[in-house]
Amino acid sequence: MKQTGKATRGTAINAWLPRTPLPVAILLGAVAEALFLVRVAVPHRPIFDEIYYVPAARAMLERAYLLNREHPPLAKELIALGIRLFGDTPVGWRFMSTLAGTATVLAVFAIVQLMTGRLRSALFAGVLTILNFTVLVQARIAMLDTFMTAFLLAGIATIAWAMRDGGWGKWLAGAMLLGAATACKWAAAPYVAFAAFAFLLLKRGHPQRWPGLAPLPAVALLGLVSVATYFLSFAPVLHFRVDPLTWRGLPSYQYYMYEQQVQVLPHHTYQSDWWTWPLLIRPIWYLYEVTDGAQRGILMIGNPLLMWGGLVAVAACLWGWMTSRSARLLAAFALWAGSVATFALIPKSLGFYYYYYPSSIFIVIAIAAVFDHWRARLGKWDERLVIAAFILALCYFPVLSAQALGSPRAFQYWTWLPSWV
């Protein structure tokens, strides 16, 4: 009788969900895209790093010269595509970012669905991703990290799909997506190595996984396809009128990019160390000034409830793996820990909170993994967490979406710590 009661309660909790994830994913994506498009044209001028990437995209459209030469071209090519479709306007600059933000939400949904096999957990993760602040902010600004993270999450989801169902086609697609992420920003490159290591580790312990994929050919294909995808992203920017790139010159150009990445830069107001990002010590005001006729602000910050609470979830994933050897909990922990460790090792002179953007999404996956693993104990606490995160999102929405604020001192309402100013 007790088992029947538990089954009945579980059925009642999930009775409103459809049997397949596709309708839920479509609805989730539609809601995310609609939210990201709300007043996306405000402010009507480039803000923060848009001052570098929008001119670089314009130059690509004119095939004149290559700007922002320290980063690969794919994200700037996508910004240029938005300008071609919608004109050289704020909507044109940012539209492709909204699609990347929606793709990120759907990729999280897919990863958790594949990880847990439960639609409720996948929807929970997707909704928390929307309420996590960082995706909303990055989906409304033309920056490289938005596109890099979208390709990265999509690549992880596709490789997880290959693990479940097998097939060289899915593995090939996952490798291409990871290569595309690296073609947006080099910070994605370590994930190709992470994917290869995870594949070999899981294949050794569970040979039945990735059916049809032999270890050495699979790893070789992952590396070759991701590198080829990366270099193909340079095709549209070859043979510009001024100081053109050529296929022959691409290898030496990579060294030039490396030199630009590791150069010592002057102090920046918003610079911060990697270990401060999980603690939410130094977020960034992308905008805080009078523009479009009013005082407005855009604060790049993670939802404090999810950022701080997510650290507990990450620790719980590690502890749960140590006690139960759950591969799902280990995967959730490793995604977050690996993303943070990357920036502990990268030789850059300056760091910024927005580098934590992928980690702020992986921490949501850790939260979803914890609620799924201990669902019998936690019951409907996932619904309560969503409600609390939604309330905080409503409170912060004015400084996530550049709404008009009451006064120049209005920022005090949202800056809980002195370092947030």
Automatic annotation (TrEMBL):
Pathway: Protein modification; protein glycosylation. It is an enzyme of class 2 (transferase). Residues 247-322 form the Protein O-mannosyl-transferase C-terminal four TM domain. The chain crosses the membrane at residues 22-42, 93-115, 146-163, 175-202, 214-238, 305-322, 329-346, 352-373, 385-406. GO terms for molecular function: dolichyl-phosphate-mannose-protein mannosyltransferase activity. Its EC number is 2.4.1.-. It is found in: Cell membrane. Residues 71-227 form the Glycosyltransferase RgtA/B/C/D-like domain. Signal peptide: none annotated. Its main location: membrane. It comes from the Bacteria. The keyword Signal does not apply. GO terms for cellular component: plasma membrane. Keywords: Cell membrane, Glycosyltransferase, Membrane, Transferase, Transmembrane, Transmembrane helix. Coiled coil: none annotated. It holds the Pfam family PMT_2. Protein O-mannosyltransferase that catalyzes the transfer of a single mannose residue from a polyprenol phospho-mannosyl lipidic donor to the hydroxyl group of selected serine and threonine residues in acceptor proteins. Belongs to the glycosyltransferase 39 family. This is Polyprenol-phosphate-mannose--protein mannosyltransferase.
